[in-house]
Amino acid sequence: MALNVHHLGIAVDDLDTALLVYSDLFGATPEHRDRVEDQGVEAASLRVGESRIELLEPLAPDTPVGRFIAKRGPGMHHVAFQVADVAVELERLKAHGVQLIDEVPRPGLFGLQVAFVHPEATGGVLAEFVADDRT
Predict the structure, then answer these.
(1) 4-131: which CATH topology?
(2) Is 29 helix (H, G, I), strand (E, B) or coil?
(3) pLDDT tens digits, residue range 73-99?
(4) I need a surface site. Which of 1, 37, 54, 65 has the fewest CB within 10 A?
(5) Domain-by-domain residue ranges, the chain?
(6) pLDDT of 16-32, one tens digit each?
(7) What does pTM read for this prediction?
């Protein structure tokens, strides 16, 4: 089960510009930045008090975030829930017939294990599981 909301993912056209906007407007503090090649993004994590947001710039138009921006424009992309064990949560949801994007965990930002639940299973919201013992 979810321990808390780990972060909100936001699709952006330009990561450098978005970093400045979120820092200037909300006082967000950049925490980590990296390319996640298998997800087709350059991502930055920012802390806002005890909370975290993740900005996602697509590496190409034919990536999941690139297609998202082409269809919907920049904006809210996903909500990530912190869990103790991503694989256990995937098995729990599979047992209930929940539609998943990932059948097994994969590396995400910070090298953490992540997995995505299909938006059709959650009323249109892309959900992510993250196992993070650093928080």
Answers:
(1) 2,3-Dihydroxybiphenyl 1,2-Dioxygenase; domain 1 (3.10.180)
(2) strand
(3) 999 999 999 999 999 999 999 999 999
(4) 1
(5) 4-131
(6) 999 999 999 999 999 99
(7) 0.92
